[in-house]
Design brief:
This protein has 8 helices and 10 strands. The protein has 314 residues and is an alpha+beta fold. The chain folds into 2 domains: 136 residues, Cyclophilin (Beta Barrel), CATH 2.40.100.20; 145 residues, no CATH class. Strands 1-2-9-6-7-4-3-10 form an 8-stranded antiparallel barrel. Strands 5-8 form a two-stranded antiparallel sheet. The protein starts with a strand and ends in a 16-residue tail after the last helix.
Length: 314
């Protein structure tokens, strides 16, 4: 039986494509990614950990699929591909400093490592300086590209309407920045958020609330439901975890997120099955993670150009 899964990762605006093979270190995660191909996504770059690319993969199952094999990602070869419960496809292309256990799923071809490093440098320039989005395309080798976000069914009609809207909004902003974030980053903040008319402070807090809302709140609720947490506890945890950050983000300008959250919280009592609960929370996770990706791209990281890490004396 041939288990080879050959893929291509392309950044069309950079004119760069690399070949990679998904391997058997974490076969369930590799299969999740393989089944979702092809897709396109905004390409991001690590801002703390080092020479590492990552983007949001439209794969709900990455939120909860178990990994069999973990490594300290600092120790593996350049070109290693990772899938994570943050719904990321990551690619190491140089030195990493963060001691994080990660779940490898494949490796970029050795002949393409120079091209991968070039892509990494260009994406860093995009994220840190130019703000011109770079879109990644991941596809099965030799096959055409494409893009479609998955849609999970919901039994309750009213919550199904909510998820339909969340799915449509996620699709709308997947490859184009949401106007709410563009307005915020350009200083158009109707609520007046930002003491003494500052904008950078508000952007910082928006970034700090959006990422854990997707990664920890909604992603964590999916995992808790699949671990068998009783529905009354899941409803209570949703109320405790989601309301305050979403309300704050609405005040800062993310009105759509706050509207979705209020409707979700109002309909929690109609969620009477773990299957429906997982589907609703998975869609909220993907939407919040998409907002988080755009916020990281748009954030004016170059404002800290004069702040550089001190090198230890030799």
């Amino acid at each position: 039986m041939n288990n080879s899964k050959q893929v291509e990762i392309s950044w069309p605006s950079l004119g760069i494509t690399v070949a990679a093979e998904l391997d058997q270190r974490n076969p369930a995660l590799a299969q999740c990614l393989w089944d979702a191909l092809p897709y396109r996504s905004l390409q991001g770059h690590a801002l703390v950990a080092g020479y590492h690319l990552y983007h949001l993969a439209p794969v709900h199952s990455l939120l909860h699929t178990d990994a069999e094999y973990r490594v300290d990602r600092r120790t593996v070869p350049d070109g290693t591909l990772f899938c994570s419960r943050l719904q990321h496809l990551g690619i190491k292309y140089g030195e990493l400093t963060e001691p994080m256990n990660a779940t490898p799923v494949g490796l970029v071809a050795e002949d393409d490592l120079d091209a991968l490093a070039e892509a990494g440098r260009e994406v860093w320039r995009s994220v840190y300086t130019t703000k011109e989005p770079v879109i990644a395309e991941v596809r099965r080798a030799g096959q055409s590209g494409g893009h479609e976000l998955p849609r999970l069914p919901i039994g309750d009609p009213e919550l199904n309407r909510l998820v339909t809207e969340v799915h449509a909004e996620t699709q709308r902003i997947w490859l184009e920045p949401p106007q709410e974030l563009l307005d915020l980053h350009e200083g158009r903040i109707p609520s007046g958020a930002g003491s003494y008319e500052t904008v950078l402070t508000t952007l910082l807090f928006v970034n700090g609330e959006t990422r854990p809302l997707g990664y920890s709140c909604y992603g964590g609720l999916v995992r808790a439901a699949l671990d068998g947490m009783p529905m009354p506890w899941l409803r209570q945890m949703t109320r405790q975890l989601a309301h305050t950050p979403a309300e704050f983000l609405g005040y800062c300008g993310l009105d759509r997120l706050w509207d979705f959250t209020q409707r979700l919280l109002a309909g929690l009592e109609r969620l009477d099955s773990h299957e429906d609960f997982v589907a609703v929370m998975a869609h909220m996770a993907l939407y919040c993670n998409c907002l988080g990706g755009w916020n990281l791209h748009l954030f004016p990281w170059q404002a800290g150009e004069n702040l550089r890490r001190l090198q230890a004396p030799a």
